[in-house]
C-alpha cells in the first residue's frame, strides 16, 4: 500500500491501490481463465510496457458486459485489442465491439490476436481519433468504454453519456490514476491529466441520470449505469 501515493514512480502502470498480496491472490484465483491468446497479449504488453487493463479488469469487463446482455459496445482507445478481447467474448457471436485507436499498428496487432481467438468477426476496428469516429457512428450503445488520453476524459464522458441506452453502462479505466487523484499537487505525466480525471469522476457522480461506483482494482474502473 505504501506506493499508492507515489506520483513520482517511474512506472506507474505497475502500481495498484490493491495490496500486492491481495492482487496475487486474485490473479491466482483467475488462473482457470488462462487461454493462449490473452496470455500472449499480456506477454506483449509486458515486453513493450504497453498499458492494457490486465486480467482482473478484463474479467470484470466481461462479467459486467454479460450481466447486462451487452450486444453493442463502443471502445474509445482500444490499444492492440486486449480489453476488446474480453468485450468480444461477452457480446457473443451476434454482438459487435467497435474499437478505435489512433495508431494503425495497433489495429494490425488486434487483427492478429483477435483472429487467432476467433473473435475478429464481431470486432469493427477503426483507426483515427476516437471522439470523431464516435460522432460519425450512429445509434445507441449498451456500453461505452473510455481508455483514451486522460486529458480527454471529461469530453468523452459528455459525448458518451448521451448515447448509452437506459440500463446501459459507461465504463472508464484509470480513474484513480495510480493514486494521483488523492494528492493535492500531483506530479503529472502530462500536465492537467489528473485534474481532468478528477473532473470526469465528479461529473459522473453528480449526474442525476446515472448511478456510479468505482471498482478500485488495478488503477480504478468507474462504472456508471444510465437510469
Ligand atoms: C491505455 S491504451 C488502451 C488499452 C486498451 N483499452 C486495453 O486495455 O487493451 C490507450 C490507447 O488509446 C489510444 N488513444 C489515446 N487517445 C486516443 C484518441 N483520442 N483517439 C484514438 N485513440 C486514442 C492510444 O493510441 C493507445 O493505444
TrEMBL record:
<dbReference type="InterPro" id="IPR002935">
    <property type="entry name" value="SAM_O-MeTrfase"/>
</dbReference>
<dbReference type="GO" id="GO:0042409">
    <property type="term" value="F:caffeoyl-CoA O-methyltransferase activity"/>
</dbReference>
<keyword id="KW-0489">Methyltransferase</keyword>
<dbReference type="Pfam" id="PF01596">
    <property type="entry name" value="Methyltransf_3"/>
</dbReference>
<dbReference type="InterPro" id="IPR050362">
    <property type="entry name" value="Cation-dep_OMT"/>
</dbReference>
<protein>
    <submittedName>
        <fullName>Caffeoyl-CoA O-methyltransferase</fullName>
        <ecNumber>2.1.1.104</ecNumber>
    </submittedName>
</protein>
<keyword id="KW-0808">Transferase</keyword>
<keyword id="KW-0949">S-adenosyl-L-methionine</keyword>
<dbReference type="InterPro" id="IPR029063">
    <property type="entry name" value="SAM-dependent_MTases_sf"/>
</dbReference>
<dbReference type="GO" id="GO:0032259">
    <property type="term" value="P:methylation"/>
</dbReference>
